[in-house]
Amino acid sequence: MLLFILSSGFINAQEAKKIDYTSDRQVKNEERYPGAIILSKVEDQVHFTHQGIEVWCDNAVFYNEANFFKAFGNVRMTQGDTVSMASKYAEYNGTTQFAFASGDVVMKRPQTTLKTDTLFFDRVKQQAYYRSGGKVIDTAYVLTSRIGRYYMTDDKYTFVSKVVITNPEYEITSSQMDMYSETGHAYFYGPTVIQSETSTVYCERGFYDTRADEGYFVKNSRIDYENRIVEGDSLYFDRSRNFASATNNIKVTDTINSSVVTGHYAEVFRDRDSVIITKRPLAATLQDQDSVFIHSDTLMITGEPEKRVIRGFYDVRLFKTSMSGKSDSIYVDQKTGLTKLINLNSGPVTSVSKLRSPVLWSGESQMTGDTIHLKSNPETEQLDSLFVFNNAFLIQKDTIKGYNQVKGMELAGLFRDNEIYQVDINKNTETLNYMRNEDQELLGINRAVSSSIRILLNNRQIEDIYYFDNPEGALTPEEEYPINQRELTGFNWRGEERLITKEDLFAGKPAPELVKIEGIPLPEEQEEFFDEREEDDLLLNENSRLGPEDLQNEKSQDSTEAVIPEMSPLPNQQNITDTIPPATDSLPGNEPAGNLPQKNQEK
């Protein structure tokens, strides 16, 4: 009895795997289709069922012993209530549960519709595959590619070769992409470009949420706006807010105003035409073939291209070949050529606030005051004039010893060929300078007061001093001049702070601790779609339109079709970027790795 039960169960199981069918008309044509039944529609279509799959067609050739059929005309195939497929022609092998469809193939899932010319469907693996070009239609986009593979269990597509996503707002071109239908999440592997009217994004590994219109990009990633280029180890992009942020080794290039800003964290607000950079930010602007560098704790760049304004806050450092400076904050109007060095301490003057006062160095000359303005010609980009407001103090090291000093309430200076050649000091002026003859022998120390003073300089050295409106003073031999009176009230020589080279912009500051970039893992290696089989164990059948040679995996696939977008030209860009001092030492552990974060933000 036990043997009978087991035998019956085995027979029933075998019969359950056979394809069932119904048809209005059945005929045989052994000469043309040996071993097959020809099924035809009269009123109702031919209907096949097999282990959860149903197929309807107008005509069919069914090989009962081989458990295989070929379907012709208005073919429809369904698997449960989640997958439906229509085509002009189809084949199905019940033994291997492998199907092939051709001719205007349309496969529908709850979230997407796939259209292609030919499609292979492996029910055991629950995978569909095309290699002759296909189109996937979603509520948010239309995607085309030469090769595509659909994993039904994960509701995931893998596209390779000539992958293009078209959306009313943008177009994505990639060499390889994974797309999850339910969420609309896309992962890029290889050169990828996201093009829209307002921006171009490039990356070689990235993520994009096609429903929320936001993405995260790593590996050679870049965002090109109309007049800015944003680069960094990782970029976050939100199209709906016209917002982008960059983390680690970032560079923001202004293609209109010939300037570059570097740092390790940046936020870009396109609608407001603003950029905020922190973590060792550095702005480099080209002026008359000479770069001006500005460093501070935070840099903010705002305004339309023709009205660009740079603001720097806290511990501002400025360097130019002929000049350097420091201040609490800085304001640069690129349209008017005005630069303001500002002291944020508005309280009474103390030893601390004196150290914080704006200061400029030119050669061995030092200028300080409550506020310093530098004016350059926007057309020629050359320095034009200098103004110091309140508590102006000019100090210059004597060629041998001591300090020449000039002080007053206000100072105005004029430049020629980017070199200061004239300084006027007004209101309560006072001077102390070491007088020498042509042989540089010291004649004495001259101390004088007057209403205003004019100083002429040559090669950054004081050449002549003119006193106006009842000057009072006297020349005293050095040995008779008290040492404790050789500094005017308010004297504060800060030469040890002077920036000698570009590297001094970061002097005394530790390298920033870079955040660990959460990268995007490489795609899992795909198993071959067409399994290796013996000649007598065919995926389809010997009566199939396709032979074993048609069911071979491709030996190679196109590696890339996405072209790197050409960067907007920047006049003399090399003169700027090549001279920027390194923003950080080489720090380990910042290579992209790990899982995808929700946002690319600083903590």
UniProtKB/TrEMBL annotation:
<feature type="region of interest" description="Disordered">
    <location>
        <begin position="528"/>
        <end position="603"/>
    </location>
</feature>
<feature type="compositionally biased region" description="Acidic residues">
    <location>
        <begin position="528"/>
        <end position="539"/>
    </location>
</feature>
<feature type="domain" description="Organic solvent tolerance-like N-terminal">
    <location>
        <begin position="41"/>
        <end position="174"/>
    </location>
</feature>
<dbReference type="Pfam" id="PF13100">
    <property type="entry name" value="OstA_2"/>
</dbReference>
<protein>
    <submittedName>
        <fullName>OstA-like protein</fullName>
    </submittedName>
</protein>
<dbReference type="InterPro" id="IPR005653">
    <property type="entry name" value="OstA-like_N"/>
</dbReference>
